[in-house]
Amino acid sequence: xxxxxxxxxxxxxxxxxxxxxxxxxxxxxxxxxxxxxxxxxxxxxxxxxxxxxxxxxxxxxxxxxxxxxxxxxxxxxxxxxxxxxxxxxxxxxxxxxxxxxxxxxxxxxxxxxxxxxxxxxxxxxxxxxxxxxxxxxxxxxxxxxxxxxxxxxxxxxxxxxxxxxxxxxxxxxxxxxxxxxxxxxxxxxxxxxxxxxxxxxxxxxxxxxxxxxxxxxxxxxxxxxxxxxxxxxxxxxxxxxxxxxxxxxxxxxxxxxxxxxxxxxxxxxxxxxxxxxxxxx
Length: 281
Prior knowledge:
three-stranded mixed beta sheet, globular, single chain, 15 strands, L-arginine/glycine Amidinotransferase, Chain A, alpha/beta
């Protein structure tokens, strides 16, 4: 098993359940609308069951991050590597207490810390994913800066860290990560919202014969391109994007869905955001 993998069968994964107290701060974190805490808890429980259904060990966070509703998006505060965790430093200041909580939880699970970012470096996990065991793709945007990318590159001397500028989109207050518009489904397959994908990244995917399933314009804002690979060609997607689902199924993908009106749509965080895979294979 390895963690330098975005599509292998999910074996171990870290998540963080929503709390009523944290969700009271939804305005401060630019959520689209007030989440219903009770429904959010129910949605997250069902989401965890979907992860367990493929045999994954699900680790729920034990260390609290007070007043931070974004903390449920467990993918962002750290980058697990085969040598240990790299604790990141978000470009969104309100999220900077999250890495310490993650380190505490995952130390108890046997994952050491390889290093951590300090000012002025910033990086969000949502701006990076493994293309293969020795290639990490990183988006450079408002949440991840050059200093953050260089820190990660220096920490992973045996890995090719390939970076790409992200589009301006709706500006620094909007949440746009690399994985907002691309999600790998297998070694040779990814779902993408093509208008957002950097040209150099499209060229790399083409050179590697990665087929692309395109998300239609009307399903981008509803997290159509944010899809979690549970195993090769087995995907967990947010319900409500029928055309994207149909296109994935036509490409031979087993698509499973979950209800995420409270935990995903209102906070702009899909199934990849809600998980931090720790082992695949």
